[in-house]
Structure formats: C-alpha cells, structure tokens
Design a protein that fits this description.
The chain is about 45% helix and about 20% strand. It has 9 helices and 15 strands. It is of the alpha+beta class. It has 2 domains: about 5-100, no CATH class; about 165-484, no CATH class. The chain has helices at about 5-25, 45-155, 180-190, 200-205, 210-235, 340, 390-400, 410-415, 425-430; strands at about 30-35, 35-40, 165-175, 245-250, 255-265, 270-275, 280-285, 290, 320-325, 325-335, 340-345, 360-365, 435-445, 450-460, 475-484. The strands form 3 sheets. Strands 3, 4, 5, 8, 9, 10, 11, 12, 13, 14 and 15 form an 11-stranded mixed β-sheet that branches. α3 (about 180-190) runs antiparallel to α5.
C-alpha cells in the first residue's frame, strides 16, 4: 500500500469516526434544570464521543494535508524528471546533429580524396601517353641544341654535317586571285562546323572520342576542302579537288623529295606484292605525305573503296593560311614523320641540316587539267619511283616546247603574247601568281641555318619514260629555286 492510499484510508476513517462520534454525542444528551429552565447537555459519554469526533475530523484534515504535500512533492519530482528528460533529448538531438555533420564532413573529405585520386590517375595515364612524344622531343631538342651550339661556335658551316631531324617547309604563293582566296577562307572557316555533323555526334556518343579526335577530323576537313584544292590549283590552274601533287627536291639532283597531295590509286611502281603459302598481299610504298583514294576524306566515307596497307604510316602535319594576297602551305616533317614523308635516293641515305643554294620544285597531275584519263592504260604513273627519279623530268625541262596553251590562259594573254612554238612564250604568258612562288626551309627547327628560295617557272609538259610515247607519266610543271 502506497502512502497516498494509506492517507486516503485515514481520511476516510477519520471522517467515519468523526461522523459517528458526532452522531453519538448528539444522541447522548441529558436534560438538566438550570434556573428553572430545562436544558439538554452532553453526558460524559457524549463528551467523549464529541472528542472522538473532533479527533477523527482532525485526522482526516491532517491526512489530507499530508496527501496534498505528498502530491506536491510528486508533481515537483515529475517536473524535475520532465526537465531532465527534455535536457537529455536536447543533448541527444545535439549529439545526433554533430554526428550527422561529422558524417557529412567525412563523406565530403572521402569524395574529395576520391576525385583527387581519379584526377591523379588520369594525369598519370596522360603522362604515359605523352611519354613517347616527350622522349622523341627530348632527342630532337638535344640535337637542335647541339646544332645551335655549333652554330654559335663555328658559324653556319658547321651545320652542314649535323644530322637532319626535322624540316619545316613553307610554300607561299603571292598575288593569288581574290576568288581563290575568298573560297579558301570560306572553307577554312567552315571546317570547325564538322563538330555538328551527325556522324561526329554519333562517334561522340557511341565511340567515346575526345576533343583531340574531333580536332583531328577538323584538320582532315581543312586538308580535304582547302589544302588539296589549292594544290590542284597550283598544278592545273583550277581550284577543285582533283588528283595532284606538289614535289620539292632539296637539291638539283633530285636526291631527296618531299611530297604532298592526293592520287586516286596507288602507282604500280609504289606497290609491293608479297606471296606466302597461304595468300598474296600488297603494300603501299608511297610517302606518307601523299593521300591515296579515300584517305583524303575527312571521315572515310568511301568505306567500300579498298586502300592498301601503308608501309609509311607517320603522316606529317599540314596547314594552310591566307594573309593578304598570299596563300601559304606548311609541311612539317617532324622527327617521327621525316623518314616516312621524305623520299631519298638512294633509300635511307643519310641527310644533314645543310641546305643547298639551288632546289627543284614541280607539280604533277594525271593530265593538264587534272581529271583522270579515260585511256586504256589507266592511272598515269609518277615521274619518279622508289629507286630513282627518271629522265622524264629532265627531258621535259630540256625540250621546253609546247604546242598549245593551257585553258586557264585568257584570250587577252594569248593575243598579247602572240603565241608561237616554244616554252619561253608559255612562261612569259603564264599568270602572275605562277611567277610569285617562294619556299622557306627550316632544318631541325633552327632559324639560323634556314634558307628562303625564289622559284622561277621553267617548263611544263607530259613526261615520256622509255621508248614508247603512249606510256602515261602524267603532266608536270617545273620551277627552279634559287636561294635569296
């Protein structure tokens, strides 16, 4: 029995005792005559009953007081417990918030560490990719530094014996007609729009190509739509994407050729065939600066056209620019692409950074107007092969004889020159831009030993190789270069 129940019982008992005692005291009165008057007075038992009644009521009152005191104490204790519980809840809530903040901080730190690790891994991978180029560049830089050191000590004469590691060839044509320049500018400016073409977007989504790949496609489009048409313009006088080559000989003996351009098919002299027990295969031996067939397409649209595997695969970078009335083509033969882009006679003969004072330059196209021949003999062969430059170029230069003018010579020029047989008349009536061509060659990236050449138009015609004049060798135009 708890105290409150006990006190409630005492209160009830006191009330009962007080009530009974009061009742008894009322019932135990007696009559007493006082001064002639009869009055009711309590008897001794009534007095005791009244005392007991008062005592019972006092007990009830006291028990209620105790009960109230106990309830007040209980309420105070409950309030204290409630306050303690609320404080405990607040502390638990604060602890939980601090735990969540600490957890978020740990998560953020972990995420940052993972991102940093991923970045470091990607940088390491990129470093591995660039390592080979860095090594090659370091070798080229050492050789260039050695050349610079020799030039500073011994002058330009010492550069003649330095091994050739790179060539930067800049061909500049001045006084180019405005329509040609405008069209080239338009094609160069439009090339980056290749990024929005559907096939590029498909490669970006499904084949995970990166920005470097897209930039390579842009450069390929510039070559396809601007560089090759201008090569064809120099070779034939027509700004169109036809088969044509530019060929630079680093001397007058044609011992080293740098080629750039496009042919429809592989010259038979530049195709190597190997036979094994199981199959026969062919390989393209043309220098890497010459595109063949669908190789010129910016994304190889002609997938059904076969292209022979290349033996020379390191293609040199090309660029084209229009400044004022001039157009320049830059061919950069780096350490990696030099051996694949440069044709030497004899093959693999050593070359040095010393440049000759005289060079040869010629263009080649299948016919005078650049279109492919429809004769039975097929694609004309080049006027040079894997082992030598034939006598055909020398013969054309010595004959200096043409019986007809090119179509692009205007009627006014025909009348003004009073055309007669002989190459001198053709040279004098050629457009002005054909007389305003220059070449600058920088070996090993060293400007101190670079040379600039002015090209003089010499002759043009169809080369003949051998005794038969129906063996096509294409159409050539020849310039002689002299150092400035």
């Amino acid at each position: 029995m708890n105290p409150q129940t006990y006190l409630s019982f005492l209160t009830f008992l006191g009330l009962v005792v007080g009530s009974v005692g009061g009742l008894i005291s009322q019932l135990t009165k007696t009559s007493v005559e006082v001064d002639g008057t009869t009055r009711k007075r309590l008897t001794s038992a009534g007095k005791w009953a009244l005392a007991i009644s008062l005592l019972g009521f006092a007990g009830s009152f006291s028990s209620e007081l105790f009960k109230s005191s106990i309830q007040a104490q209980l309420q105070a204790q409950a309030k204290i417990e409630k306050t303690l519980n609320e404080q405990k809840e607040r502390e638990n809530k604060d602890w939980q918030e601090r735990s969540e903040k600490l957890q978020d901080a740990i998560k953020n730190d972990t995420t940052s560490a993972l991102k940093l690790s991923e970045q470091n891994i990607n940088q390491t991978i990129e470093g591995f990719k660039k390592e080979e180029n860095i090594i090659a560049y370091s070798r080229e830089r050492v050789l260039r530094d050695n050349l610079l050191h020799e030039v500073s000590l011994y002058g330009k004469l010492s550069a003649a014996g330095t091994p050739l590691t790179s060539l930067t060839i800049t061909l500049t044509v001045n006084d180019v007609p405005a329509p040609v320049r405008n069209k080239l500018k338009k094609q160069i400016a439009a090339a980056p729009q290749i990024r929005d073409e559907e096939w590029i977007q498909n490669l970006l989504i499904h084949h995970n190509i990166d920005d470097d790949d897209v930039a390579a496609f842009v450069q390929a489009r510039i070559y396809e739509e601007a560089v090759q048409p201008f090569i064809d313009y120099i070779a034939t006088g027509r700004l169109s994407k036809e088969h044509a080559l530019l060929v630079l000989s680093l001397d007058r003996r044609y011992s080293a050729l740098a080629c750039v351009g496009w042919v429809g098919e592989t010259d038979s002299q530049w195709t190597a065939r190997t036979t094994t027990d199981s199959q026969e295969s062919s390989e393209n031996l043309l220098p890497s600066g010459i595109f063949v067939g669908s190789e010129i397409d910016s994304h190889n649209r002609k997938t059904d056209e076969p292209v022979l595997p290349r033996q020379r695969t390191a293609r040199p970078p090309f660029s084209i620019s229009v400044a004022g009335t001039s157009v320049s083509i830059v061919l950069d033969l780096t350490l990696q692409s030099l051996s694949d882009a440069l044709v030497r006679y004899p093959a693999n003969s050593p070359a040095t950074a010393g440049l000759n004072d005289n060079i040869e330059f010629f263009t080649w196209s299948p016919t005078q107007h650049g279109e492919m021949s429809t004769q039975d003999w097929g694609v004309p062969e080049l006027p040079f092969d894997t082992e030598r430059v034939g006598h055909s170029l020398t013969d054309v230069d010595q004959r200096k004889n043409r019986r007809s003018l090119p179509d692009w010579v205007s009627a006014e020029a025909r009348a003004r020159s009073q055309w007669e047989k002989g190459n001198a008349r053709w040279v004098s009536s050629a457009p002005r831009w054909m007389h305003r061509i220059s070449i600058r060659i920088v070996p090993n990236g060293v400007e101190q030993v670079a040379k600039s050449y002015s090209l003089s138009l010499s002759s043009a015609g169809y080369p003949i190789e051998g005794t038969r004049e129906d063996e096509p060798r294409g159409y050539v135009q020849i310039w002689h270069g002299h150092v400035l």
